[in-house]
Amino acid sequence: MAEDQVKLWITIAEAVPKAVLFLAVMVLGIVYRREISQLFRRLEGIDAGPLKFSLKDFESWAAESSKDRDLSITGEAIEAAMNRARRSRDAFAGLKILWADDVPENNFRERRALASLGAQVTVALDNAEAWGLLRRAEYDILISDLGRDNKEDPKEVTARAAAYLYQPAVVFYAMRIPDPMPPEALGAAVAPDKLIHLVTDAAQRRRWTAPE
């Protein structure tokens, strides 16, 4: 009987640390659920494996983008943009992109494509967060979705970006082209192939103007 009680207490003692650890994880998950959710939104799609440069993949991407953006986008157009970017791959090495988008999961293909070329892509969930990141680090390109329903003022975005020591090239990637387009912006795109072309332009310009 005494031996059974000893075994019982040993079992309880072994189970207590596991139970405490489980409860601690649960509490942390509840307390930091917003931060954890945001982290997964930022990372969604980035670690989905290597990007395959096949026309079939580009056609699937084009079909999804056409549906989401109510446009006619072809896989051939995305393939051509990616092929051009690949020919400028050296310009993408070390390229730092800050992407401000309140729904980053909608653009995980674009982010994967740019990351596959060698760019470093950091996600901000809105322009306010982007300004904070720009104060602390250098970025070559700022991609902005102009906020939910395109309510951000594009002139304000370009003006604020220009006020930082390291002035990033500003590219708008939204459901509509800003009208008028701020002359300080590199450009705007509503389709992924156009976005890739603009980022390639910025990458090449950065390489040409980089100090020896």
The rounded distance between the terminal residues' Cα atoms is 83 Å
Strand order of the largest sheet: 2-1-3-4-5
What's the tally of helices? 9
**How many domains is the backbone divided into?**
2
Strand content: 5-15%
Q: Helicity range of the residues? A: 55-70%
Mean pLDDT: 78
Q: Secondary-structure element order, as H and E? A: HHHHHEHEHEHEEH
Specify the biggest β-sheet. Answer: 5 strands, parallel
Can you tell me the CATH class of the largest domain? Alpha Beta
Q: Helix- and strand-based class?
A: alpha/beta
CATH superfamily of the largest domain: Response regulator
Rg from Cα: 23 Å
CATH architecture of the largest domain: 3-Layer(aba) Sandwich
Provide the fold topology.
Layout: H1 2-31, H2 33-43, H3 55-69, H4 75-87, H5 89-92, E1 96-100, H6 108-116, E2 120-124, H7 127-136, E3 141-144, H8 154-162, E4 169-173, E5 187-189, H9 192-209
Parallel strand pairs: 1-2, 1-3, 3-4, 4-5
Helix pairs in contact: 3-4, 4-9
Q: What does this protein look like?
A:
- Helices cover about 55% and strands about 10% of the residues.
- It contains nine helices and five strands.
- The protein has a five-stranded parallel sheet with strand order 2-1-3-4-5, sandwiched between helices.
- Mean pLDDT is about 80; it is low at about 30-50.
Features:
212 residues, alpha/beta, Rossmann fold, 2 domains, 9 helices, 5 strands, 10% strand
Concise structural overview:
By secondary structure, the protein is α/β, with parallel strands linked by helices. Helix content is 56%, strand content 10%. The protein has a five-stranded parallel β-sheet with strand order 2-1-3-4-5, sandwiched between helices.
